[in-house]
Amino acid sequence: MSEWDIKKLHILRTLREQGTVTATAEVLLMTPSAVSQQLSNLAKQLGVTLLEAHGRRVRLTDAAHLVLRHAEAVFAQLERADAELAGYLQGEAGEVRVGAFSTAVPALVVPAVLQLRRSHPALEVRVREAEAAEAFELLSAGAVDLALSLAAHAPSARDPKFALLPLLADPLDVALPAGHPLAAEPGLRLADLAHEPWIFGGSGPWSEITTAACEAAGFVPEQAHSAAGWTAILAMVEAGMGVALVPRMAVADRRAGVITRILSADQPRRHVVAAVRRGAEDGPAVARVLTALREVAGA
Known about the structure:
By secondary structure, the protein is an alpha/beta fold. Helices cover 42% and strands 22% of the residues.
């Protein structure tokens, strides 16, 4: 029977995700030569060729992909074992590390933490703010136990590494300067703003969400200004420099000189998901945090 080494399998999986030996070494805090040596040893243990030259790089062989397909089931089972053991050893205690994008922290994570402090005071939640896409990288690397992200930037539901759990459909409202001619327009539609200057990020999820929503309404938004943070975006809206789509979860950042209107006729939304490494969702500590997040999202 072949010898399946969990540590070496983890290195092989990381190489598949990162693409190069150098990037794999950086993620795992190893040297490139150590990564190559471990994978060479794994190939000998399994009796198959795992890597082949591809220009100046290497790529995984069909045998390597076969090995990883079975290894994913092993990793998921180990996550379940860790979760069950944690429940046995810790009971109501434990620690859950949560990675969440900026607007989800005050709107979802903080209320959930406050709720858990009352119901499970021995459970510690550590929060790390991360961009929507970065949250999955942290989850995959084991730096967080639970990630809050946007469905548009989530891996496929068929990805064997993660379990995705829908949390919230967050409506997008339009922010207008208080004196804008359309600020009090009844039945305001997104298409009514087709010729307005728009403010949104130059790249990343919010740029894509704004562009997609406007294109669905029949126009391509003219980007007058670029900003990533809500404080900057709403300050520019207040100054009359343009209009912007804002998530309803960002209500805490709204300003007195900004009017937000609900686009009832063509309400765009962004979908928020929670993700864990597959098999870990049944761990008692993670399950309690997920329950608290669902309750906050439902409210």
